[in-house]
Specification:
Helix content: 25-40%
Largest sheet: 9 strands, mixed
Strand order of the largest sheet: 5-4-1-6-7-8-11-10-9
Structural class: alpha/beta
Low-confidence stretches: 1-58
Length: 853
């Protein structure tokens, strides 16, 4: 296949010049980066930079929409020579371009619903690209079968709809060959995208569960690609999702997107819970936007239910009167109250539950016998399997039983239509139905209620629109387990498994006063008509722009293998600490200050035994033995533990309990740096913490000399975090008049005296050294959590006040790539030890006395 970037040259070469007066096809101008750096720094014209707020006058953005199936119908010509193609007007993805900017080109990448011979694929690809702006992905038959009917329909689809494979016959066991086919299919889609993409100017919008690992393939190739993903199915709770053997691979692949969209908050909440429990990622909400911090990138979470295409349905309504003669349907059901169901033939659509509810309605409310009719339209099944066959047989049996039991001459309580209907024919049924019933046990969205509301509203000029001479009215009975339920506040929501309650809801809906039906209809129509597919796509695109606005201002690089691949994105001023650089500065300096946090810095957070290793003791001893060095361990731990652990380090300074206790060397007495020795507040704080400890399994209390700490690292992540937040508020309230500070940190809530922080320790050390004529010309400060940010801030303050010289070597370093006041980072404790080993080798041990000022 030839990329569209080259089609104009081929046209010119063959003499096919564009006609005069025809709009010229936009050319993509590729920006080639030939030197490492930040792209925005390389642009001569700021207007052409993606980082600029000024729209480019040269390069226009383009949207590449990647879907499992293209919104195109393919049909072999009658002579069997070639193909004819047409747009699939029923595809919502075709109409989402209505919400994108008018001058934005839209390119579709996806598979065709037809088997195209290998020899025809190049020709078909070119025709689709030239005439439809579509790029087909042709999957080999063996991969297609395992990918779609295998992994998608046997594993993902049931699991995402809360169906677990309890046995080999019920759902089937996990088959790794199906997963491999899923990955292979996603790779083929990525190759088609790569053929046509201009990574600096294009947006990529990937759709649905068929392509959940595609973001990794594209991100691996283009670190700064602007990419969104929208899931059209439910996302299950973490208890269900975590049963998937490839759960982390899929999560990490999705997180390579910039924006991930869901229909409802429930689906988004489940996804965020999985990220928290499996990857340790916590989301933040800022100004109404939800984001996950992932290796320096903020992955946006978008909650926006899709809408319908208003123009398409309204145009169909104008034809429905002529084509399907709504009048005849009214005549057929004259004197009857019509309840309507329109569903796919699917095990999750609850069709039989609806039939059982109809049976219950006729039993409990006999006035509706002979008057109420349920018209059930089922679209052809897209899946296959024994479960589906059993369900179809059950539905047929229920229809037969109900019609035999309650049917009368000229009256059939259930009219079952088991064939595909056009949108115009369905619109005729929507128009005459008094109520639509959706009883799905699980459904990603379901737009049937939206279509019904618009059809009941009708359009001006349509003679047979729903009660065109009077006020419009409609009623909905919808399952609470479908995606559209939260947005239809006037609908009667039901648990479809509760047959009796569903039957009562159906009776309430058709018995309701017309005035109430009108009010509910007006409320629904206002929402549906304003939140259409164009509104949905416009909102998603705008959030993609906002989420990606800093892409070209940041330094990005990829790390990790296979589905562990991710892109690290950092502010240009936030750099990994280069060992050679710091070693060089260390050797040149004369008076050095080294401040080390303990837990998470020289001791891994996950380590159960917190005693420092002999290697750590040896490194610190060597550093302390250098007469040029002043070395401190600054920790939140108690002085007894730290004093015992670091007893071999005679010249090491220790600041315990965030600086409440401090000594310059082992031979010095501990200084009390607190402003008050009244600890009566502990009697208030401890009972509160005990309450939360009893209620939170896995939590514990640590009582220090100057502070009380509540730990919840071993508690359930979600519950522990919620309890910590509640406790923080509780303690702040009861300790409002006490001279203490209540702080939250990594899996802790701490109460400590006011004015005590690691920042004050650093300030005291810098000031003391400067006053004794030993102003530091080399500062290394390393920590990993919020309390260490105070140290980083104190360095900036010391430079501003002249205690430290800004021209000297200052290295404020956080552990882990995350937002920080530090200018440098190291990945983990192993990196920290490696760096300290380099400084150890560069040190000049001396018997001179150590840290005392």
């Amino acid at each position: 296949m030839v990329s569209k970037s080259y089609t104009n040259l081929l046209d010119l070469a063959s003499g096919n010049f564009p006609e005069m007066g025809q709009p010229r096809e936009r050319k993509q101008l590729h920006r080639v980066m030939t030197v490492p750096g930040v792209i925005s720094e390389l642009d001569d014209d700021v207007a052409n930079s993606v980082a600029s707020d000024v729209p480019s006058s040269v390069v226009l953005d383009r949207m590449i929409i990647v879907v499992n199936q293209l919104p195109v119908k393919a049909k072999r010509r009658p002579d069997n020579k070639g193909w004819s193609f047409s747009w699939d007007e029923d595809s919502l993805l075709l109409h989402l371009k209505d919400g994108l900017p008018e001058d934005m080109e839209v390119l579709y990448v996806g598979s065709l619903r037809a088997d195209v011979e290998l020899t025809e694929q190049d020709e078909v690809s070119q025709v689709l690209l030239d005439r439809f702006n579509c790029v087909p992905a042709f999957l080999p038959p063996d991969i297609l079968s395992k990918f779609y009917h295998g992994f998608c329909k046997q594993h993902l689809w049931p699991l995402f709809h809360y169906m677990l494979p309890f046995s080999g016959n019920h759902g089937g066991r996990f088959d790794r060959s199906l997963w491999e086919a899923y990955v292979a299919a996603n790779k083929i889609f990525s190759q088609r995208v790569i053929e046509v993409i201009n990574p600096e100017d294009d947006f990529v919008w990937i759709h649905d569960y068929h392509l959940m690992v595609l973001p990794t393939f594209l991100r691996r190739r283009f670190n700064r690609l602007r990419m969104g993903f929208f899931l059209h199915s439910p996302f299950p709770s973490s208890e269900i999702y975590r049963t998937l053997p490839v759960r982390e691979e899929i999560l990490k692949a999705l997180l390579n997107s910039d924006l991930i969209g869901f229909h409802t908050f429930d689906y988004a909440r489940h996804f965020l819970s999985c990220c928290s429990r499996m990857l340790g990622l916590e989301y933040q909400s800022k100004r109404g936007y939800i984001g996950l911090e992932y290796y320096g990138r903020t992955v946006g979470i978008k909650i926006m239910p899709v809408g319908i295409h208003m123009g398409q349905i309204e145009s169909v309504l104008k034809l429905a009167d002529k084509e399907w003669r709504v009048g005849e349907l009214k005549q057929q059901f004259e004197g009857k109250t019509v309840l309507l169901g329109v569903d796919d033939m699917d095990i999750f659509k609850g069709v039989n539950l609806k039939l059982l509810a109809m049976e219950q309605l006729l039993k409990q409310h006999q006035k509706w016998q002979g008057r109420a009719v349920l018209v059930q339209i089922t679209n052809p099944a897209r899946g296959q399997g024994r479960d589906l066959e059993e369900m179809q047989a059950e539905i047929q049996e229920s229809c037969r039983r109900i019609n035999e039991k309650f049917g009368q001459p000229g009256y059939e309580p259930v009219v079952f239509i088991d064939r595909p209907l056009s949108l115009s024919e369905k619109a005729a049924y929507f128009t005459i139905a008094e109520c639509v019933v959706v009883a799905a046990v699980r459904d990603g969205m379901n737009l049937t209620p939206y279509e019904y509301i618009v059809c009941r509203q009708g359009v001006s000029g349509s003679e047979c629109s729903a009660e065109s001479s009077g006020p419009k009215k409609s009623m909905l009975v919808v399952s609470e387990f479908i995606g559209c339920s939260p947005s239809l506040s006037g609908a009667i929501r039901v648990n479809p498994w509760n047959i009796e309650a569903t039957a009562e809801a159906m009776n309430e809906a058709i018995s309701m006063a017309d005035s109430e039906k009108q009010l509910r209809h007006e409320k629904h129509y206002r929402y549906v008509s304003t939140h259409d597919v164009a509104y949905w796509s416009r909102s998603f695109y705008q959030d993609m722009e906002r989420t990606c606005k800093d892409h070209f201002r940041r330094r990005c690089w990829g790390i990790g293998l296979s589905f562990g691949f991710r892109v690290v994105a950092l502010d240009p001023n936030f750099k990994k600490l280069n060992i050679d650089h710091i070693e060089s500065a260390y050797i040149k300096s004369k008076k050095r200050t080294i401040l080390l946090d303990y837990d998470g810095t020289v001791m891994p957070q996950t380590s159960i035994n917190k005693t420092p290793s002999s290697r750590v003791i040896s490194i610190i001893n060597t550093l302390c033995s250098d007469v040029k060095n002043t070395v401190f361990v600054v920790s939140g731990r108690g002085r007894d533990s730290l004093g015992k652990w670091f007893a071999p380090c005679k010249k090491l300074g220790i600041a315990a309990e965030h600086g409440y206790f401090m000594r310059w060397s082992a031979g010095d007495d501990w200084e009390n740096c607190g402003q008050s020795s009244d600890f009566g507040w502990i009697q208030i704080a401890e009972p509160v913490m005990k309450l939360y400890t009893e209620a939170t399994d896995g939590s514990s209390i640590e009582t220090k000399e100057s502070a009380v700490v509540w730990h919840h690292r071993d508690a359930d992540p979600g519950f522990g975090a919620a309890q910590a937040k509640e406790m923080l508020d509780h303690l702040e309230s009861v300790l409002a008049n006490e001279p203490v500070a209540v702080k939250s940190g990594q899996f802790i809530v701490e109460v400590k005296p006011q004015g005590i922080s690691k920042g004050s320790v650093a300030e005291k050390i810098f000031t003391s050294m400067a006053e004794s004529g030993r102003q530091a010309d080399f500062v290394l400060c390393i920590g990993d959590d919020r309390s260490d940010e105070d140290m980083f801030e104190s360095i900036d303050n010391a430079i501003a006040s002249g205690i430290l010289n800004s021209s000297k070597s200052v290295f404020a370093c956080t552990v882990g790539q995350k937002p920080s006041k530090a200018k440098y980072y190291l990945d983990d404790t192993a990196d920290v030890i490696n760096m300290l080993e380099a400084l150890e080798e560069a040190s000049s041990p001396s018997p001179s006395p150590g840290n005392s000022p």
